[in-house]
Amino acid sequence: MQTQVKEPQNKLPKESLRVGLIGDVIFDVVVLLIFAVLFGLDFLFEWPAWIGTVLLILLIISVPLLIIGYLGTVIDHRNWRYDIDEEYVQLRQGAWFQKDQLIPVTKIQSVETKQGPLLRRYKLRAVEIETMAGEYSIPALPDKEAYALRDEIAAYAKAKEEDD
């Protein structure tokens, strides 16, 4: 007996891309500040020349990697999908390495929403789903949609629990 599972259709909102890119910028600024401090210490304490050379090579290597990080965020956002029904919560993410997760509603132990400072700024919330096997997350949904999704998943899980 095989059941046919439809492809997940719901996408993340455009604001979640903005939050992801801002997170990338914050990370990049921290990395560049660390490099600036290390170059300053190299200049101040007159470390051996090879240390400055290694720092410069690492900086040159890190700049393209930071740019690739932005492209990765955009591409991953375009390919992120989710869907729920009475039987499953489906999550699909990734472009290069696609990851499909099918979470049976009967295995869900808890559902919660989380919000950090960046998500709060854009009125978004992450929906976290916990099972015995692990934790799954839909990274950013509008507040009302996140609460509705959380309540819907919880209702499906409770209904399945009562049926058993």
From TrEMBL:
<dbReference type="InterPro" id="IPR005182">
    <property type="entry name" value="YdbS-like_PH"/>
</dbReference>
<keyword id="KW-0472">Membrane</keyword>
<feature type="transmembrane region" description="Helical">
    <location>
        <begin position="21"/>
        <end position="41"/>
    </location>
</feature>
<protein>
    <recommendedName>
        <fullName>YdbS-like PH domain-containing protein</fullName>
    </recommendedName>
</protein>
<keyword id="KW-1133">Transmembrane helix</keyword>
<feature type="domain" description="YdbS-like PH">
    <location>
        <begin position="78"/>
        <end position="153"/>
    </location>
</feature>
<keyword id="KW-0812">Transmembrane</keyword>
<dbReference type="Pfam" id="PF03703">
    <property type="entry name" value="bPH_2"/>
</dbReference>
<feature type="transmembrane region" description="Helical">
    <location>
        <begin position="47"/>
        <end position="71"/>
    </location>
</feature>
